[in-house]
Amino acid sequence: MAEADTNRFWLIKITIYWNFAGILSYKINDFRKRGLIMKSKIIIIGGGIAGLSAGVFGQKYGFETEIFEMHSVPGGQCTAWERKGYLFDYCIQWLMGSSSGSMNTLWRQLGALSEDVPIINTEVFIRNVDKEGQEFLIYKDMQKWRAYLKSISPEDEEAISRMFSIIDKLSLSGDLEEIMKPKPLRRTLPTLKILLRMLPAMIPMMKYGRKSFGQFIKEMGFKNEFLRHFLEMIYSGYLPKTNYLIQHI
User: Which range of residues forms the domain containing residue 72?
Assistant: First the structure.
């Protein structure tokens, strides 16, 4: 199915969901007006994107919502401020669903993304320069990053291939909308299909899941000090699977 057709499919599917939700919400409100149901209230701690989302969807389903935020403005990590002509963007480092999929639909329903909000996709994901002026790049495209690592450290070709073999197994292609739902709302067959796609990732997850990325890099056996230094410095403390998600979403 082409990307445009896929997007139309999800749009139709979500439209059907919301039509059903609208009917259900109408019935609930009708029952409440007749005194058959007491109106419930949700107290939400935090006015970041998660708290605001909970408030919006809570009201969509007929609940009264109240959000408590310690800051003077809502938005959390989606806020920015100016000081002496400089813009300080306290923004999330990466955004799930910036291009398409169920998360993209969610952002647009909330108004966080729209046609007026440009998404800038850069070729380089991270550019790191140490105090000696040495530069190290991480590309969004994993094939390009693999070639880059081999170009700066040919002696580590085997270790690099071993690392990317594990990264590939941790890859989960396709939309994961079903397993992101609360358990009572998950459908059995779509969930099983996603779990089957996850099977190749189980062994590396069990082997490396509790290790920091620094430990993971050491186990790969990199010989090049420059390469080992930057990898350990950038991802020190991260789990290997977290590294992979950051690179691919």
Answer: 1-121
Same domain, 10 and 112: yes
Do 22 and 112 lie in one domain? The reply is yes
Dist. CA 97–CA 151, nearest whole Å: 32
DSSP letter (8 states) at residue 80: E
Contacts 24+ apart (CB under 8 A), 218-226: 220/159, 220/162, 220/163, 221/159, 222/153, 222/156, 222/159, 223/153, 223/155, 223/156, 223/159, 224/152, 224/153, 224/155, 224/156, 226/134, 226/136, 226/152, 226/153
What does the block give as tokens for 31?
Answer: 């029952």
Same domain, 116 and 11: yes
Distance CA 149, CA 197 (A): 28
Rounded to a whole number of angstroms, the CA Rg of the chain reads 23
pLDDT tens track, the chain, 249 positions: 444 444 444 444 444 444 444 555 555 566 566 655 556 888 999 988 888 888 888 888 788 899 999 988 888 877 888 899 988 877 766 677 777 777 788 788 888 788 888 887 789 888 888 888 889 998 988 899 999 999 999 999 999 999 888 888 776 655 666 776 777 778 888 888 888 887 887 888 788 777 777 778 888 899 998 998 888 777 654 444 444 433 443
Write the DSSP symbol of residue 40: P
- The verdict on pTM exceeding 0.85 is no
Count of CA atoms in the C-beta half-sphere (13 A) of 122: 9
